Amino acid sequence: MTFHEDVEKPKPSHSTLEDERRQGSGKHRSPPERLYWAHRGEQAQEGHPLSAHLLAVAERAREFAMPFGGGEWAYLAGLWHDLGKYSHEFQDYLERATSPDHHAAELRGSVDHTSAGARHAVASFPVLGHILAHAVAGHHAGLLDTVSDGPCLDARIRKAVPAWGHGLAELPPASMPRLPPALETRLADRGRDPRGVGFSFAFFTRMLFSCLVDADYLDTEAFLDRARASLRPVWPADTLPRMETALSAFVERLPVAGTAVDRQRQQVRAACLEAAKLAPGFFSLTVPTGGGKTLSSLAFALRHCVLHQLRRVVYVVPFTSIIEQNADVFRAVFGSLVEAGVPDPVVEHHSAADVDDDSASGRLAAENWDAPLIATTSVQFYESLFANKPSRCRKLHNLATSVIILDEVQKIPVDYLAPCLEGLKELVARYGATVVLCTATQPALHRRDGFELGVEGVREIVPEPRRLYLALKRVEVEDVGTLSDEELAARLLSEPRVLCIVNTRRHARELFARIDEGDSAYHLSAAMCPEHRSQVLAKVRRDLGEGRVCRVVTTQLVEAGVDIDFPVVFRSLAGLDSVAQAAGRCNRNGREPVGRLFLFRSEHTSTERFLRDTTNSTLQLLGSEHTNPLYEDLLSLEAVAHYFRLYYWDQRQRWDAKGILSDFTLQQNPELPFLFAFRSTAERFRLIEETGRIVIVPWQERGKALCAELRSPFKAPSVALLRALQRFTVEVPLRQWLAEQGRAIELVHEKFPVLTCLNPYYDERLGLVLDRQDIAPDSLVT
Question: What is the pTM for the complete model shown?
Answer without folding.
Answer: 0.83
